[in-house]
Automatic annotation (TrEMBL):
<keyword id="KW-0812">Transmembrane</keyword>
<dbReference type="InterPro" id="IPR003594">
    <property type="entry name" value="HATPase_dom"/>
</dbReference>
<dbReference type="InterPro" id="IPR035965">
    <property type="entry name" value="PAS-like_dom_sf"/>
</dbReference>
<feature type="transmembrane region" description="Helical">
    <location>
        <begin position="9"/>
        <end position="29"/>
    </location>
</feature>
<dbReference type="Pfam" id="PF08448">
    <property type="entry name" value="PAS_4"/>
</dbReference>
<feature type="domain" description="PAS">
    <location>
        <begin position="144"/>
        <end position="214"/>
    </location>
</feature>
<keyword id="KW-0597">Phosphoprotein</keyword>
<dbReference type="InterPro" id="IPR003661">
    <property type="entry name" value="HisK_dim/P_dom"/>
</dbReference>
<dbReference type="InterPro" id="IPR005467">
    <property type="entry name" value="His_kinase_dom"/>
</dbReference>
<dbReference type="Pfam" id="PF00512">
    <property type="entry name" value="HisKA"/>
</dbReference>
<keyword id="KW-0418">Kinase</keyword>
<keyword id="KW-0067">ATP-binding</keyword>
<keyword id="KW-0902">Two-component regulatory system</keyword>
<keyword id="KW-0547">Nucleotide-binding</keyword>
<dbReference type="Pfam" id="PF02518">
    <property type="entry name" value="HATPase_c"/>
</dbReference>
<dbReference type="InterPro" id="IPR036097">
    <property type="entry name" value="HisK_dim/P_sf"/>
</dbReference>
<keyword id="KW-0472">Membrane</keyword>
Length: 523
């Protein structure tokens, strides 16, 4: 019955059917008895039934329909809607009684409806289930999107998405930090709009490779951002739609600029350490060779002298050879000791007021036999330099002797060596002097030793004054030495407050060593 009353059309049809049944029953009864006085009570049944199942509106409809039927079929004049005085009173009483029945029935039905669960049709239950699941899915999707957005925005890696044309669809906060550009300036644009063309082209090639192979690939990518090198490790993977067709690229890039610089520094340091170890190994090999060579000569000539019956010429040659090799060995040992003192900081100067010219002349006299033996033309030029310097006479003599000895050693027979001494003035202005628009002159003694020897390779020039470094460090080289002399020279010059540097146009074009020392009047 509830299912029949579920819709308005069925409800009013049901009311009409009851009216017809009651009307038929009343017509039959009217053939036996007079229903106008006692049987109207039967007409209350459709009104009550309709009020219970259909509610107030349906009950009013049933009451009106019943009143019309009674008026037309049972109240005189029959088959007419016109009413006399008495008949009008009867019809009115029926209406009043009907409403008295309708009111409690509808109220009782309302209370019963509140207590009794409404039976929902199956199709409505399915609809409500779909709505509920849709709301749950929507909430889960929103939560997932919220999680994903939080992860993407707070990631330490740059996360981005591009379409197949390279236009940015997503650009997280880390991307803004690395590339120094806001997402508003990037979304909908390509790398060519804010990166150098070369960098953008490299990124594009990598992304096309990912699409072609259809799998995730890792790349090390480089860019110049605000004149600073930026290196990232990028994992790029293709994105597919529901039909399996690629529509974009997802990239996750981690900046490794600092790590890259540190790695390069470590590699460079490792190479330098390996080079130092090789140099030390070569130095030890050279030391053993350089010490053994004069010892062999000394031992050989000593055995010759012990054999006796030698001419005076042979004896003189033997003694001269022994003395020369002994001096050579002594020099090697002194160089090693000097380097040891330099390394430990124990090399000290005996400072006094000295003249440079006599020191240079003394060194020339000591080296004269070697100069004559190689027929070298030596020129010493100085423009009446009388200024003095504060320094260690023996150590400065060692500096000049090393420079001249190197020039003699590397200059071929018949070559030329020039030693020039001059004074140069340099203008110096302190902050206090700038305020008073004044300046002072500094004087320096410049000593230049120039030769026409074998010269120096351009790539070796930066290492000329390094310890244990020689252009040819093999034991089969043409020239002896430990490669310590120039390192000692530089240290001594710097202890005097000076500087030393070398110039050479290349192999076979000679070299010029320049020493710059401050004079006394600078103090």
């Amino acid at each position: 019955m509830q299912k029949i009353a579920a819709s308005g059309f069925h409800l009013y049809g049901f009311t009409l059917l009851i009216e017809i049944l009651v009307l038929s029953l009343m017509y039959l009864l009217n053939q036996v008895i007079d229903v106008t006085t006692s049987a109207f009570v039967l007409f209350f049944s459709p009104v009550i039934i309709t009020a219970w199942y259909g509610g107030l509106k349906a009950a009013i409809f049933a009451t009106a329909l019943t009143a019309l039927a009674i008026n037309y079929f049972f109240l005189p004049p029959i088959n007419s809607l016109l009413l006399g005085g008495e008949e009008f009173i009867q019809a009115s009483l029926f209406l009043i009684q009907s409403f008295l029945f309708i009111t409690p029935v509808t109220l009782l039905k309302s209370q019963n409806t509140l207590k009794t669960p409404v039976e929902i049709p199956q199709y409505q239950e399915q609809y409500f289930d779909c709505i509920t699941k849709l709301e749950q899915t929507k909430a889960a999707l929103w939560q997932s999107q919220s999680w994903l957005q939080t992860i993407v925005e707070n990631s330490y890696s740059a996360i981005y998405i591009k379409d197949l044309d390279g236009r940015y669809l997503l650009f997280n906060h880390k991307c803004e930090t690395i590339f120094n550009v806001s997402r508003g300036q990037v979304l909908g644009k390509t790398d060519y709009d804010f990166l150098p063309d070369e960098t953008a082209a490299a990124y594009r090639r990598n992304e096309q490779k990912v699409i072609e192979l259809g799998k995730a690939l890792e790349f090390e990518e480089f860019a110049i951002i605000n004149s600073q090198p930026v290196t990232v490790i990028s994992l790029k993977c293709p994105l597919y739609n529901c039909e399996g067709i690629p529509y974009g690229i997802c990239g996750i890039s981690t900046e490794i600029s600092d790590r890259k610089l540190m790695q390069e520094a470590l590699i460079k340091q490792a190479e330098e350490l390996a080079q130092i170890n090789r140099i030390k190994d070569d130095f030890l090999t050279t030391v053993s060779h350089e010490l053994r060579t004069p010892l062999n000569a000394i031992l050989g000539w000593s055995q010759v002298l012990r054999s006796g019956k030698l001419s005076d010429t042979i004896v003189a040659k033997a003694l001269e050879t022994i003395e020369r090799n002994a001096r050579s060995q002594k020099q090697l040992i002194e160089d090693i000791l000097d380097v040891s003192q330099i390394v430990t900081g124990k090399l000290h100067l005996q400072i006094s007021l000295i003249d440079i010219v006599p020191i240079i002349e003394k060194v020339i006299n000591i080296s004269l036999p070697s100069i004559v033996a190689k027929e070298i033309q030596l020129n010493f030029g100085q423009n009446q330099v009388n200024e003095k310097i504060l320094g260690d006479s023996d150590r400065l003599q060692q500096v000049i002797w090393n420079l001249l000895a190197n020039a003699i050693k590397f200059t071929p027979v018949g070559g030329c060596i020039d030693i020039n001494l001059r004074i140069e003035e340099w203008e110096k202005t302190t902050e206090k002097q700038k305020l008073s628009c004044a300046s002072s002159l500094l004087k320096f003694a410049i000593i230049e030793v120039t030769d026409t020897g074998i010269g120096i390779k351009p790539e070796f020039l930066p290492f000329v004054f390094d310890r244990f470094r020689q252009a040819d460090g093999s034991t089969t080289r043409c020239y002896g030495g430990l490669g310590l002399g120039l390192a000692i020279v530089r240290h001594i010059v710097e202890l005097h407050g000076g500087v030393i540097y070398v110039q050479s146009e290349g192999e076979g074009k000679g070299a010029t060593f320049t020493v710059k020392l401050p004079l006394v009047n600078n103090l």
